[in-house]
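Progress note, sequence design subtask.
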C-alpha cells in the first residue's frame, strides 16, 4: 500500500504555485516557434516572445507597454489600416472567441512591411473575465513569394496563349462560315466542338489576365455613382434565357437602394459571375436574386437550390483554381477562377462576400456593399482610382 509523502505533496504544490507556474509558462511562451504577444484591454503589450523579436526585429524591452498599433500597424493587401477598422485583437476580446485574420502586413523595426498569418484569442482571468488578448503570427514571406511567382508564371503563359488562340478562332470562324468552300454536317459538328473548346481556352486566358491585373496593383477603378438595382435587373434579363433553357425558375426580389461608388464594368462582372455560377450548378429548382438595404449597408444575394458546397471546403472559396468536390462530381466545366476574380473585385470596392451552403440543398452568396455616404475611401464623380 502506497503511503503519501507530505513533503513531496508540499513540493508539488510549490511547483504549481503562481510564481512557479508563471515562470514555466514564460519559458514555454519564449520558446514557441511562432511569434506571439499578449496585450491588455487597451492593446498595450504585456508579453512579447523571442520569435516575435526574430520576425519583426523589436526586442521585448522596446515594446512592452506600447499600443501594438504604434509600431506593428497591421494593414491589408490594399494598404488599409485594419488596426482602426477591424482589429482582430479587439474583435476577439469583444466577441470572446478566436479570430482568424488571415494574411496581413506588419511593420518591422527597419520599417519594412512583412506578410504575416495572424490569429487572435481572448485571454481570461480566474473569474472568466476578458482582461486582454493574444496574437499568434507566422512569417508568410515565402508563401507570398510563391504566390507572386505563380501569378507571374500564369501571366506569361496567358499572354503567350492569347495570340495563337486568336489566330485559331479566326480560322475556325472562317471554316464554319464556309468561306473556303462547303463542308458536310459531320465536319461542321467537329468544327463547332473545336470552336467551343477554343472559346473555353480563350475565356480561361482572359480570366488569368484579369486576375493578374487585379492582384498586381495595376487595376484602375473608374469610380462613379452606381445604381445596383439597374445593374441587377440587366443581369436578370441577360441570364433569363439560360435559366429557362435549364428548366429553372429565376426569381428576383428588388428593393430600392441608395447608390454606391464603384467601377460599373467590374461590379457587373462580379455580380454576373455569382449569377452564372448559381445557374450552372443548379440542375432543378430555382435561383433567386435579391437586393435590399440593411442598416448602413446594401446587400445583394444570390440563392440557389444547386449542388451546394461541403462546409469544410467553404474556406477555400476564392482560391485560384479551387472547385468544390460537388462541382467536380456534377461534371460541370469551369476553371475555378470566377469566384477568385469576384472576391478580388469586391475587396477593391470594400465590399464583403459571405457564403452559406449545404451539399444537395444549395448555396447563398451574400455581398455586402457600404453605402456611398458611409465610404471613407471612395471617390465620386467618375474619378479614376488606382488599386
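Output:
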Amino acid at each position: 500500500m502506497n503511503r503519501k509523502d507530505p513533503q513531496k505533496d508540499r513540493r508539488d504544490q510549490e511547483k504549481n504555485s503562481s510564481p512557479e507556474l508563471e515562470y514555466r509558462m514564460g519559458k514555454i511562451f519564449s520558446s514557441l516557434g511562432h511569434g506571439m504577444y499578449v496585450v491588455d484591454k487597451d492593446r498595450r503589450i504585456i508579453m512579447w516572445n523571442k520569435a516575435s523579436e526574430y520576425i519583426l526585429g523589436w526586442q521585448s524591452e522596446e515594446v512592452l507597454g506600447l499600443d501594438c498599433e504604434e509600431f506593428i500597424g497591421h494593414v491589408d493587401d490594399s494598404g488599409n489600416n485594419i488596426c482602426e477598422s477591424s482589429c482582430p485583437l479587439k474583435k476577439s476580446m469583444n466577441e470572446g472567441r478566436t479570430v482568424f485574420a488571415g494574411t496581413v502586413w506588419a511593420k518591422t523595426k527597419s520599417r519594412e512591411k512583412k506578410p504575416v498569418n495572424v490569429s487572435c484569442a481572448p485571454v481570461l482571468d480566474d473569474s472568466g473575465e476578458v482582461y486582454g488578448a493574444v496574437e499568434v503570427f507566422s512569417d508568410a514571406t515565402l508563401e507570398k513569394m510563391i504566390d507572386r511567382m505563380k501569378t507571374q508564371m500564369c501571366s506569361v503563359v496567358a499572354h503567350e496563349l492569347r495570340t495563337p488562340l486568336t489566330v485559331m478562332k479566326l480560322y475556325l470562324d472562317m471554316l464554319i462560315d464556309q468561306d473556303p468552300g462547303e463542308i458536310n454536317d459531320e465536319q461542321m459538328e467537329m468544327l463547332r466542338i473545336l470552336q467551343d473548346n477554343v472559346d473555353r481556352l480563350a475565356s480561361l486566358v482572359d480570366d488569368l489576365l484579369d486576375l493578374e491585373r487585379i492582384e498586381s496593383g495595376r487595376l484602375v477603378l473608374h469610380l462613379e455613382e452606381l445604381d445596383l438595382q439597374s445593374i441587377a435587373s440587366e443581369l436578370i434579363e441577360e441570364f433569363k434565357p439560360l435559366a429557362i433553357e435549364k428548366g429553372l425558375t429565376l426569381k428576383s426580389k428588388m428593393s430600392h437602394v441608395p447608390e454606391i461608388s464603384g467601377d460599373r464594368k467590374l461590379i457587373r462582372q462580379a455580380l454576373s459571375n455569382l449569377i452564372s455560377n448559381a445557374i450552372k450548378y443548379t440542375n432543378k429548382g430555382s435561383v433567386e436574386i435579391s437586393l435590399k438595404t440593411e442598416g448602413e449597408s446594401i446587400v445583394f444575394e444570390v440563392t440557389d437550390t444547386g449542388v451546394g458546397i461541403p462546409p469544410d471546403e467553404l474556406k477555400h472559396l476564392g482560391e485560384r483554381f479551387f472547385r468544390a468536390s460537388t462541382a467536380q462530381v456534377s461534371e460541370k466545366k469551369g476553371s475555378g477562377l470566377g469566384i477568385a476574380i469576384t472576391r478580388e473585385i469586391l475587396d477593391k470596392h470594400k465590399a464583403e462576400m459571405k457564403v452559406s451552403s449545404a451539399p444537395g440543398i444549395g448555396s447563398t452568396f451574400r455581398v455586402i456593399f457600404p453605402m456611398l455616404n458611409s465610404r471613407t475611401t471612395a471617390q465620386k464623380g467618375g474619378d479614376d482610382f488606382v488599386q
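The domain at 13-139 is CATH 3.30.450.20 (Beta-Lactamase). Work on this subtask will continue into the next period as scheduled.
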